[in-house]
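Ligand-bound model needed. zinc ion.
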Amino acid sequence: MKFCPKCNSLMTPRRINGKSVLKCVKCGYEIDANAGGKKDVVTTKVQHAESEKILVIDEEVPERAQKVKGVVCPACKNDEAYFWILQTRSADEPATRFYKCTRCGKVWREYE
Ligand SMILES: [Zn+2]
Ligand SMILES: [Zn+2]
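Prediction:
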């Protein structure tokens, strides 16, 4: 229910010249019945560009990384490293093996 902004009387819906209006029963004030209605909010879905998927190599060791022996660190010749595999870019590209030296923290990679 709408009330007249001028005299606070009840507004009644009418059709005038094909337009729906609300007309005050007392003072005759008219308002457009459709005014102030909720308009459809256009939502734009954010599409991530393909380039954003390109992996930024993070030198943090992921939780799934395994400690492996027998891998020689190119920096300090330590023979133990954390090892994990990352599938970079698309599935048809080879996965990359990452190693992180448990001693000096150097990260290096190998392509399959
Ligand atoms: Zn009125
Ligand atoms: Zn090392």
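The domain at 51-111 is CATH 2.20.25.10 (N-terminal domain of TfIIb).
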